[in-house]
Write a structure and sequence with these properties.
heterodimer; A: mainly beta; about 0% helix; B: mainly beta; 7-stranded mixed sheet; 4-stranded antiparallel sheet; globular
Chain lengths: ~110, ~110
């Protein structure tokens, strides 16, 4: 069975600093997708970044980037120049290319401090 | 306009009542999902559907049922609500090569 583990329930970072959120996963599939979603207090689920497993290059979206280590089954999210609006719950997710189910981690609550 | 719309946004119901949560999407995604979010547990899959004739149980389907009335509509029912079904419920839609697009969530409280 596929699993996603986020081992940091809560983190905090000073505004303008850099923070890294950890995610590890397990799957027997060779083709899959990985995602980071942000859930602000509005509770909306917002896609932050996605990574296709067959791509070696790490995905980047403005201040957000990932460190994708396929062999280690690790998918961490780096937020640079943290802003107050980055305060949210962050979920790591794996999409199984066989069943197309999305499997989520338990989330990391990030607080950006002024 | 939101790709995925859920109704209601919030609902309080009594133990034993039947309740339906509705979800519709406007982008023609063939796959639709219902998730439940609880503090410390993340999002857990209740049911998912690949088309109107294909319904699949997720990891926590007991006590729930679903109906895919059309490609664009996927409803979740609690036949007899119980307090431990109090949670935030999300509907999502997507295609094989896309991310999941989520609705705004339904906060359900069973008293």
């Amino acid at each position: 069975a596929q699993t996603v583990t986020q081992s940091q329930p809560e983190m905090s970072v000073q505004e303008a600093e850099t923070v890294t959120l950890s995610c590890t996963y397990d799957t027997s599939e060779n083709n899959y997708y990985l995602f980071w979603y942000k859930q602000p207090p509005s509770r909306q689920m917002i896609l932050v970044i996605r990574q296709e497993a067959y791509k070696q290059q790490n995905a980047t979206e403005n201040r957000f980037s990932v460190n994708f280590q396929k062999a280690a089954k690790s998918f961490s999210l780096k937020i640079s120049d943290s802003q107050l609006g980055d305060t949210a719950m962050y979920f790591c997710a794996l999409k199984d290319s066989g069943t197309y189910k999305y499997i989520f981690g338990t989330g990391t609550r990030l607080k950006v401090l002024a | 306009d939101a790709d995925v719309t859920q109704t209601p946004r919030n609902r309080i119901t009594k133990t034993g009542k039947r309740i339906m949560l509705e979800c519709s999407q406007t982008k023609g995604h063939d796959r639709m999902y219902w998730y439940r979010q609880d503090p410390g547990l993340g999002l857990r899959l209740i049911y998912y559907s690949f088309d109107v004739k294909d319904i699949n149980k997720g990891e926590i389907s007991d006590g729930y049922s679903v109906s895919r009335q059309a490609q664009a509509k996927f409803s979740l029912s609690l036949e007899s609500a119980i307090p431990n079904q109090t949670a935030l419920y999300f509907c999502a839609a997507g295609n094989p090569n896309t991310e999941a697009f989520f609705g705004q969530g339904t906060r359900l409280t069973v008293v």
